[in-house]
Design a protein that fits this description.
alpha/beta, Alkaline Phosphatase, subunit A, ten-stranded mixed β-sheet, four-stranded antiparallel β-sheet, 20 strands, 15% strand, globular, EC 3.1.6.1
Length: 598
Amino acid sequence: MFLKALTAAVSLSGLTQQALAKQPNILFVLTDDQDLHMHSLDYMPLLQKYLVKEGTLFLKHFCTVAICCPSRVNLWTGRAAHNTNVTDVWPPYGGYPKVVSQGINDNYLPTWLQDAGYNTYYSGKLWNAHSVDNYNAPYASGFNGSDFLLDPYTYDYLNAYMTRNGAPPASYIGQYSPDITAAKAATFLDEALTHKDRPWFVVHAPVAPHSNFQLKGVQESDAPRYADRHAHLFKDYKIPRTENFNPEKQGGVSWIKNLPRLNQTVIDYSDEFQRSRLRALQAVDESLEQLIQKIENAGELDNTYIFYTTDNGYHISQYRFHPGKECGFDTDINIPLIVRGPGIPAGRISTAVTAHTDLASTILSLAGVTRDDFDGIPIPLNAKEERNGRHDHVTIEFWGLGIPEGKWGNYGDENMEDGLGFEAHAAGNNTYKGLRIVSEEYSLYYSVWCTNETELYDVKNDPHQLRNLLSDEHVSSASKFTIAGRPLKHILPRLDALVLVLKSCKGKTCTQPWKVLHPDSEVESLIDSLKPRFDTFYHSQPKVSFSKCERGYIKESEGPLEAKQYTSDAFDTIIEPALQKQGSARSFQYRGQLGWWT
């Protein structure tokens, strides 16, 4: 009976009877701030050997909130940030205290896997604001074995403090943090492999390639530290000089639009900054081989899924940015995801649209467990599943500051200050709601900022997202932009209505938002919604807006929260009166088209 349930839940072609004899093992490697668009994966030869060539690379994978703690909560719970209410890295809106107060410490993926019979282990960074002072208040739940990096030393590569299985924090001063967490992950894997009768879930979450941050005393950041054995690497590397690299004509809105161009001193520093990031990733690359070989030597590789991803992306010099994240451009939200395991094609590149919101449900499905409270759905792990179709959108959201990193970073007001010392250099008003939507016909990013500025990029024809079609500078491009023959003036209300649904979505409404807008029809995509008979309905929708720029999720400041539905009542009260004003002949024509609906 269990075998049938697992087969149905996983539904992967090519699984052997031996692999299905017990629940599969799962190794999850989670880096910190790793980019996709500066091609960091290309500089990891062992990752290429063991994962890219032996698994599937998901090129259209996105985080939904481009900062670590909210993104990790999204990943480990399968719920959108507006539903977890963890929207920052520090209290009061985020961090470990917020995770605890929201009940997440006892209700997320590792606890669910333990309930499903798994032994669970974790080495590295779990949450921000998980510190030497609160590591036991309460203890982090969900793991048979754990060794957590602790603030304020988490990002200090040569001065780590960690707590093993709840013991008082131990200092590792002078030792290289990614090597320490890798060694501890290997020890946990050895332990897991001794329990032949139980499946296991092992997470390695190194701090690399995050900036080297000192959070104790004078707060400052610089390029990540790398191990001495990697100091000789990548000396000639330069950040790709793409169109959005320190552009002469800037994209973006709000504070981004007015950023000054970077001078040569900053550009040279940024190139070296990224070299340091690539060097820091070499320790992670080496640990991958060590962990995978352990699994293979134990005879468990054919029954093990390996996930490799990061919490959010990263930018350096694109859009005139100093090093950092927290923005809605693809540099920050389009991130690496590679999966290897039973039934997953080797060397395949998937273009399915997936998000961190989907990973908890994916892993539970592999374990033979189903839940009905996710905001995402399992990702398609082979071509057959991908052909079955899935949604083409990702909810993008952010609250708070845009914080520059590195010694030259400064966006902010020098008169502003907070307890961490970052706010004086950060950009305020960096709160926005967005939508990334990708199909064969279109690729778009649309967002509404808390300042009520809007931006729309035709990523298919503007892959570096520099020409905001809603700005005065690009009126000509906007006038030529169409989807399915429909102009921007009709496309935009559909996108706005979609964001209106997604910014408050929960459960299936996050993956099936068109059913919220069209509960009685077969509209399932942007193309379907663009039929002219829906024009008046969409133009009548409340618009996404903010009444105030907040640092966290404050519903009262986020404008309208519910969209109107296209039903017979909507026809009688909205569309029909509008059509009557245009003349009885036109009213009759539309009623004829919608006769099935009235």
